[in-house]
């Protein structure tokens, strides 16, 4: 099925179109009511439990509106099999878990156990699994009984990825809207109409929520929304893409979710490097780094959304322009994919360079850059004194030598 045929099939599916519109309408109407409810049940973000990039007290249970916006059209419009019913029930349980965490707080271990239990409902109970892995040039490989733990790991990981990237106005909502829209097109191309419709409902709900969540945000989705959306995205990717035997069945979801995967991998490795628990909050996310170099929250969200959209577009491109057709190579498709891939790599390298994830001292260590007149301590002092009035990036406090970190003033990302 071509791209145009897939889009036509998606738009021709009544459940997908009406589900998108109904989900968006419910979220637009219900979100103000949730904002009114939040201070009355303790669902306000007032700081103290995490590092923040905003000022003031903001409702953080907007996920109630998002989950309601998805659940209502899903139960009303989809021809629900036991597997899809299990997915939706699991999502509601995850949302309830997140709501308790937003209001009262839950230890990380308890939250993780709850996510695993919710993931087991569709995975162990109704075979919502991917039982083989297909990679370009390598082929299709059956993974047998390992499918169950690997699928649970995938669902729990994606739920946490979306939750961890939800630290700035509109960021997680935009990422989920891009991902769910991409999964809708991919699922439609494989003839999986029910999954495509559910993905469209997720897309409609998150796009509508952005109306209230763009900076300055009037409400946050909180763990209620972020965990449930991550859970649903993971299940949609399994049912709509990973279950297929297409050559892009594994590559496409990884590309669509590459930005939250990269962001979370980077910050978790950074925390482990400094012997901190991986769930501890800090200022090392990509959006923190963008704001440290002077970008506003809106521009930061725009850059990261654009990056995610580029990667998702490439995932869709690999589906509709495969480099091989049967046993024969398609030279035209291969050249197009190679050219687009080089552009994506260049854009990603620019992001990494701009954010100084790879620093000059790292390049010097492997002989790719000469040592300048300033060492790390000199660079820090130069940033703090000689250029303190300019909108420049300050070296990451955790990348400084211990004796410099102890004696230097605290450096924090700007608040929005």
Task: Offer a few descriptive terms.
416 residues, mainly alpha, 4% strand, two-stranded antiparallel sheet, single chain, globular, 17 helices
Q: How would you characterize this protein structure?
A:
This protein is mostly helical and 416 residues long. The chain folds into 2 domains: 3-284, no CATH class; 360-394, no CATH class. 66% of the residues lie in helices and 4% in strands. It is built from 17 helices and 6 strands. The protein has helices spanning 3-11, 14-41, 63-77, 82-103, 108-126, 147-165, 171-189, 193-213, 222-242, 251-256, 258-273, 286-292, 297-320, 331-354, 360-365, 376-386, 402-407, and strands spanning 44-45, 58-59, 132-135, 139-142, 324-325, 328-329. A two-stranded antiparallel sheet has the order 1-2. A two-stranded antiparallel ribbon has the order 3-4. A two-stranded antiparallel sheet has the order 5-6. A hairpin with a 2-residue loop joins β5 (324-325) and β6 (328-329). α4 (82-103) packs antiparallel against α9 (222-242) and α7 (171-189) runs parallel beside α9. Residues 371-416 have low confidence and may be disordered.
Q: Gyration radius, to the nearest Å?
A: 22 Å
Question: How many distinct domains?
Answer: 2
Helix content: 55-70%
Distance between the termini: 45 Å
Q: List low-pLDDT spans.
A: 371-416
Secondary-structure blueprint:
Elements: H1 3-11, H2 14-41, E1 44-45, E2 58-59, H3 63-77, H4 82-103, H5 108-126, E3 132-135, E4 139-142, H6 147-165, H7 171-189, H8 193-213, H9 222-242, H10 251-256, H11 258-273, H12 286-292, H13 297-320, E5 324-325, E6 328-329, H14 331-354, H15 360-365, H16 376-386, H17 402-407
Helix pairs in contact: 1-7, 2-3, 2-8, 3-4, 3-8, 3-9, 4-5, 4-9, 5-6, 6-9, 6-11, 7-8, 7-9, 7-13, 8-9, 12-13, 13-14
């Amino acid at each position: 099925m071509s791209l145009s045929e897939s889009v036509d099939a998606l738009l021709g599916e009544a459940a997908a179109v009406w589900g998108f519109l109904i989900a968006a309408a419910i979220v637009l109407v219900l979100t103000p009511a949730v904002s009114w409810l939040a201070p009355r049940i303790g669902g306000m973000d007032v700081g103290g439990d995490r590092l923040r990039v905003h000022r003031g007290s903001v409702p953080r249970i907007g996920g109630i509106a998002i989950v309601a916006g998805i659940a209502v059209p899903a139960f009303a419009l989809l021809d629900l099999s036991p597997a899809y019913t299990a997915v939706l029930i699991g999502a509601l349980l995850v949302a309830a878990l997140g709501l308790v965490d937003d209001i009262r707080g839950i230890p990380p271990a308890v939250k993780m156990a709850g996510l695993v239990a919710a993931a087991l409902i569709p995975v162990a109970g109704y075979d919502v699994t991917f039982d083989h892995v297909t990679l370009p040039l390598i082929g299709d490989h059956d993974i047998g009984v390992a499918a169950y733990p690997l699928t649970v790991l995938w669902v729990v990981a994606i739920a946490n990825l979306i939750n961890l990237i939800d630290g700035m106005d509109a960021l997680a909502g935009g990422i989920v809207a891009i991902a769910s829209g991409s999964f809708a097109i991919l699922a439609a191309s494989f003839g999986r109409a029910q999954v495509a419709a559910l993905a469209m409902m997720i897309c409609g709900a998150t796009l509508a929520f952005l109306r209230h969540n763009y900076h300055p945000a009037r409400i946050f989705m909180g763990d209620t929304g972020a965990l449930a959306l991550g859970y649903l995205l993971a299940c949609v990717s399994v049912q709509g893409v990973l279950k297929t035997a297409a050559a892009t069945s594994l590559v496409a979801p990884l590309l669509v979710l590459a930005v939250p995967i990269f962001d979370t991998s980077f910050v978790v490795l950074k925390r482990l490097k400094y012997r901190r628990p991986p769930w501890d909050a800090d200022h090392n996310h990509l959006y923190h780094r963008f704001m440290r170099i002077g970008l506003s929250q809106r521009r930061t969200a725009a850059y990261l959304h654009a990056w995610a959209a580029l990667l998702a577009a490439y995932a869709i491109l690999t589906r509709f322009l495969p480099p091989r057709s049967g046993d024969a190579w398609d030279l035209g498709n291969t050249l197009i994919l190679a050219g687009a891939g080089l552009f994506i790599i260049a854009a990603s390298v620019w992001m990494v360079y701009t954010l100084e994830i790879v620093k000059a001292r790292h390049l010097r260590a492997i002989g790719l850059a000469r040592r300048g007149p300033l060492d790390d301590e000199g660079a820090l002092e130069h940033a703090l004194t000689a250029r303190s009035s300019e909108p420049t990036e300050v070296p990451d406090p955790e990348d400084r030598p211990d004796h410099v970190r102890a004696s230097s003033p605290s450096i924090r990302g700007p608040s929005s």
